[in-house]
Amino acid sequence: MVPCCFFVAMLAPLVLALEQSPDMVIKEGQSVNLECSQKKSSNTAMYWFMLPSEKNSSLTQLVYAVEGANAVVEKGFESHFKSSKIKGDSITLSIEHAFLNDSGTYYCAESDHSGWALQQSPDSVVRLGDTVTLQCSASANNYIHMYWYKLPMEKDARMQPVVYSMEGSKADIEKEFQNRFQSNGTRNNHLAMQIQHALLNDTGTYFCAEQDPQ
Questions:
Q1: Using CA atoms, how far apart are residues 23 and 10, in angstroms rounded to an integer?
Q2: Which of 8, 45, 107, 170 has a beta carbon 3.0–4.6 Å from 103's, enabling a disulfide?
Q3: Does residue 1 sit within a domain?
């Protein structure tokens, strides 16, 4: 039997107000459509990102689309990546004739026209034993839930919730992170998370997310 190569698409939303296609395994050469929908109607920009499966890879923007306009596919991906316009608060990313190096985790995100709905600390390199504070601010001025997630660097790693907090409340830190991760909770649409005495296994990509409680 001749071994077959597969392209793996793992889907994970950046913002909790979005719903995406489930994880899937695609044979190399097949085509696939990845769907992303907002839970509430609003005038937004929408994005697709990819985090390749290779170790030490970084998040790459694939698609940008504004309500009422054609989607823009980033240079280097136009050959077999296509995107629909935003249609009824949904957007579809099509990967035609998938290659093995298309394997990775695909993320959908949204923002309002004033810019990103969330701003967070830039990429940083931290030495073992150092303490680092990650900052996240929401542009909206309303009563929201805020979160920090971690995506470890290991191959086939999955997104892990780290911190959850409502405006004005104490932060809820997941059990496995309580030893060295701290947060004072959400204040004025801002959620900071501190990692004390960083260890090698803290390495990863950290994402901030928000959710309207309605």
A1: 4
A2: 8
A3: no
